[in-house]
Design a protein that fits this description.
The structure is a single chain. The chain has 33 helices and 25 strands. With about 950 residues, it is an alpha+beta fold. It has 4 domains: about 210 residues, Cytochrome Bc1 Complex, Chain A, domain 1 (2-Layer Sandwich); about 200 residues, 2-Layer Sandwich (Cytochrome Bc1 Complex, Chain A, domain 1), CATH 3.30.830; about 220 residues, Metalloenzyme, LuxS/M16 peptidase-like (Cytochrome Bc1 Complex, Chain A, domain 1), CATH 3.30.830.10; about 190 residues, Metalloenzyme, LuxS/M16 peptidase-like (Cytochrome Bc1 Complex, Chain A, domain 1).
């Protein structure tokens, strides 16, 4: 897209030396200076976002960010599961699926999304449904996206044929959710808490409604709610606002609203008049205790205090429930949420409890803590900590244009998008007194729904206040100062290479820096450390994994909570994770906070304290995780497949261990083992750091040299390399009782690396096989046509270090469809093996694949990971240019030849896990693929 310079952000002028500093870059012109199409009106502006209206009622939000290489189109309809009638549960979500089938002028939407390199999705919630796509910012792509959304607003194919196939896909999504007892318990609690309001009904719907909904009712639902006056269109990213508004006018102004008005929604949940309870009995290894309370809507002034209250109670590790339940080992973990709805919401808290512990004791402790706040009021320190964490989340999301554009759907659903900023301002005003007042009002036994019956002598009715008058409350509201814009940056390998600054630190660390102006002066960092070799890492998998998970639980003079407090106070993101072979620190900060964030990440990597108390808590958490994974079809299937494909000794660092094996080895690890592992392996000699964004390269290099320059690795590093060995194909099944969704895992090893001549052909071939959106061969057959699976696809993992790579596919499905899924997988793979791909398929795939890579490079948090990988391999960005050129030049014959060479369907191993029908059990012992 061509962006005008006059009155808008200057493009690359600071880097070119034409402007003295970032302060000299002009900001975007005010919306009232833009030339608007006839009939379009400007409504209001808040912090860089402008609202407009068309005469047909369509609400438009424009959010330009010239520092991006991408644009996002997100359309939100004010309709969700709360608008469904009797027998229509799940209809809003089912309709969301059908709108990807096609429309009058866009008959094959999955193909178009892939060919434009889009990152698309849709989602349905209680109050809204939204559809969005992020793509490389060109006029052609934006025109296409706007035309797509305007067309499927009124011309979508809502047909019996599509419903027949998609119904079973949605049913499979329902079945996947039925595997999670914690999720089902939350649904049961909500359905008990709400007697009349549709918030008590899950968005996924009832199985009977999903299976039997008449097409005429679904079509009527679509025509009732999908109309301009009930939609909000959000366009964000690298856009020319005037050009974009003119294009929106062209695409959407001709649309008219139906003559029949939308029905009013008037059901209001009455005050709860006594405790309610529900009990769920399912197969599993982990207990859950929960309590829920009715609270006001997300637009109510008290809501911010309730969110802070939830964080004070349920956060890990600072929350009161974590202290009283997890640290005392009454429970393994705590979670909570103050649900933000258009109407009165729900305050929900739950605890995971191991089967050896008392569920009743855990529940009693939950209610004691929640309903005893009057005697133990929130402190200033607790409120400050919770508020800082919530504001940090809000601010870091706001720095990302795409996330902001999508997040706006949640606030639009509440009745006014400006509530996003209004909520932030209310957070800043929360006090211990307001939090205590909210707790005293709503956290009562008579307003609670949980897993136990709790009698009371004095019933208490908690009246939930009505929604405020938003027009009055937000009249004249303009928010704070808009966030600073960044510069335009062309995210090609050549441009990246031209701007990279490379150097080495004294210890040997490779430092790659890419300075540029970004929205909100953000900066992304990726730090990779590499440990040992195959011999020194033998038997170290478990201790390395535990050591990695302990890095953020105490470092230097900081406790786990103090580390989290510093992160929240700086309003940055720091994620430090590690295993036996290496460690990674990812940082998202601003120019101002980068030095502190780097020092904190360095402290976590260099000086972990491995507190004994935190190790015991970690052991409890991992025990629950591993107990749950014992009956996970996904974990079971892929563990079996991995062990077959790469048979390794149990002490090998790459060995695929079962949950039972991990539990046994974890129990033997002591704190001394963690300290010894860190002392033996951690260091920065074999490390890479990439920094991208708004920062001072000289200052950053000096700081990193000070923090890491003298940190030598104690032992030599050589990457672990598992030699290629082709195993015979097997067909296996693992039966797991009471699982309504099964998992199929299919795959084989391939004797190539990423320098092999066949790699480009296999990469694009896999993209067409199962790696694209809904139009890949596997998705088209198994999801779109046969309607057997909600989640189906394939993946190619190619090694850079040895000729031992992997191709794998998967599908989640209802166990009675086991034979059909296997047959469909085999038939599609055999068709590709026999006939290859068409020239049209390949042309569309090349376009989409290339654009997806460009979108990935334009995301700084992804680019830093790519740069550290290039540094580790000793490559520059010319490797990417050559690789993409090779893919671009591929012919159908080359792709087919590569598949013939490496992807023989008869050599694919297939493993399934779940409640597979008994008549399939005869293949459980394995054997040749039949």
């Amino acid at each position: 897209m061509i962006v005008k310079l006059a009155g808008r952000a200057a493009v690359g002028l600071v880097a070119a030396g034409l402007l003295a500093s970032a302060d000299a870059v002009p900001t975007l012109a005010a919306a009232n200076d833009w030339t608007l199409p006839t009939g379009m009106t400007h409504v209001t502006s808040v912090e860089g976002i402008d609202e407009f209206r068309l005469e047909n009622g369509l609400q438009i939000l424009i959010f330009p960010d010239p520092s991006q290489e991408t644009a996002t189109v997100n359309i939100t309809y004010h309709v969700g599961s709360m608008h469904e009638g009797y027998g229509e549960t799940g209809m809003a979500h089912l309709l969301e699926h059908l709108l990807f089938k096609g429309s009058k002028n866009h008959p094959n939407i999955p193909d178009e999304l892939t060919s434009h390199g889009a990152r698309p999705n849709g989602s349905t919630w209680y109050d809204r449904t939204n559809y969005f796509e992020t793509f490389s910012a060109t006029e052609e792509n934006l025109t296409w996206a706007l035309d797509l959304e305007s067309d499927r607003m009124i011309n979508a194919f809502v047909s019996r044929k599509d419903l027949d196939s998609e119904m079973s896909v949605v049913r499979n999504e329902f079945e996947i959710g039925e595997n999670n007892p914690g999720r089902i318990l939350e649904e049961r609690v909500a359905s008990t808490a709400y007697l009349w309001h549709n918030y008590g009904k899950s968005t996924i719907g009832a199985r009977s409604d999903i299976e039997n909904v008449p097409i005429d009712r679904l079509d009527a639902f679509y025509k009732t709610w999908y109309r301009p006056e009930n939609a909000t269109l959000i366009v964000a990213g690298k856009i020319d606002p005037e050009w974009t508004l003119a294009k929106i006018d062209e695409k959407f102004s001709p649309l008219t609203n139906p003559a029949t008005p939308m029905p009013a929604v008037y059901t209001k949940e009455p005050a709860q008049d006594g405790g309610r309870s529900v009990t769920l009995r399912r197969v599993g290894d982990t207990q859950v205790a929960a309590a829920a309370y009715h609270i006001p809507s997300g637009s109510h002034p008290e809501y911010a205090s309730l969110v802070v209250l939830e964080r004070i109670l349920a956060d890990t590790p600072s929350g009161r429930l974590h202290e009283s339940l997890v640290e005392t080992k009454m429970a393994a973990s705590i979670r909570g949420d103050a649900y933000r709805f258009h109407d009165a919401g729900l305050f929900y808290v739950s605890a995971e409890v191991s089967k050896e512990k008392s569920l009743e004791d855990a529940h009693t402790e939950i209610t004691r803590v929640l309903e005893g706040l009057a005697d133990n009021a929130p402190t200033t320190e607790e409120v400050d900590r919770a508020r800082n964490a919530l504001l940090r989340q809000w601010e870091t999301t706001s720095r990302n244009t795409r996330r902001t554009a999508i997040r706006m759907s949640e606030w639009v659903a509440l009745g006014d998008w400006r509530l996003a900023f209004w909520y932030r301002d209310r957070l800043k005003e929360v006090t211990p007194e307001s939090v205590l007042a909210a707790a005293a009002t709503y956290l009562h036994a008579s307003n609670r729904t949980d897993g136990f019956y709790i009698p009371t002598d004095k019933p208490m009715r908690v009246e939930i206040p009505d929604n405020p008058n938003l027009a009055e409350m937000l009249d004249g509201y303009t928010g704070g100062e808009a966030m600073a814009m960044g510069e335009e940056f062309d995210a090609t390998p050549e441009t990246i290479e031209a701007h990279l600054i490379r150097t080495d630190l004294a210890a040997g660390t490779k430092l790659w820096m890419l300075p540029k102006k970004t929205r909100g002066a953000t900066v992304s960092v990726n730090m990779n450390l590499h440990f040992g070799d195959e011999e020194t890492l033998t038997g170290m998998a478990t201790v390395g994994r535990l050591a990695g998970r302990m890095l953020s639980r105490g470092a230097g003079d900081l406790t786990r909570q103090e580390i989290q407090d510093q992160i929240d106070q700086m309003q940055v993101r720091i994620n430090v994770r590690a295993g036996a072979e290496g460690a990674t620190a990812s940082i998202e900060a601003t120019r101002e906070t980068l030095p502190q964030a780097l020092m904190l990440a360095s402290k976590m990597l260099r000086h972990p304290t491995f507190p004994e108390s935190e190790l015991e808590l970690l052991r409890e958490e991992m025990t629950v995780e591993l107990d749950e994974s014992k009956t996970s079809p996904f974990n079971r299937a892929f563990t079996m497949l991995s062990r077959h494909a790469n048979p390794l000794p149990a002490d090998h660092v790459r060995y695929s261990s079962t949950p039972e094996e991990q539990l046994a080895t974890m129990a033997e690890v002591s704190r001394d083992d963690l300290v010894a592992f860190h002392e033996k392996f951690y260091g920065a000699t074999y490390a890479e750091i990439a920094v991208v964004g708004d920062f001072d390269p000289a200052e950053t290099q000096e700081l990193l040299a000070k923090e890491l320059g003298d940190w030598k690795s104690p032992v030599v590093h050589k990457a672990v390399s598992v030699e290629f060995s082709e195993q015979p194909a097997v067909l296996q099944v693992s039966n797991i009782p009471d699982k309504e969704s099964a998992v199929l895992a299919i795959g084989k090893t391939i004797a190539i690396d990423d320098e092999s001549p066949d790699y480009p052909a296999l990469a694009l071939g896999n993209f067409m096989t199962g790696g694209g959106f809904l139009n890949s061969r596997l998705a088209t057959r198994i999801r779109q046509k046969d309607g057997l699976s909600y989640s189906v696809g394939s993946r190619l993992n190619v090694s850079s270090l040895s000729k031992n790579s992997w191709w794998g596919g998967m599908a989640m499905y209802a166990p009675p469809n086991d034979d059909r899924v296997i047959l469909a997988f085999r038939e599609e793979m055999e068709k590709i093996y026999a006939d290859g791909f068409t020239a049209e398929e390949i042309a569309e795939a090349k376009s989409g694949w290339m654009q997806q890579r460009r979108v990935s490079r334009s995301a700084d948090r992804e680019l830093v990971g790519q740069l550290t990988r290039r540094a580790y391999l000793g490559r520059d960005m010319s490797w990417d240019s050559a690789f993409e050129a090779a893919v671009s030049a591929l012919t159908p014959a080359q792709i087919h030849a590569a598949f013939k060479q490496h992807m023989d369907p008869s050599k694919l191993s297939i493993v399934r896990a779940g409640s597979i029908p008994e008549d399939d059990s005869n293949v459980s012992g394995g054997g040749a693929s039949d």
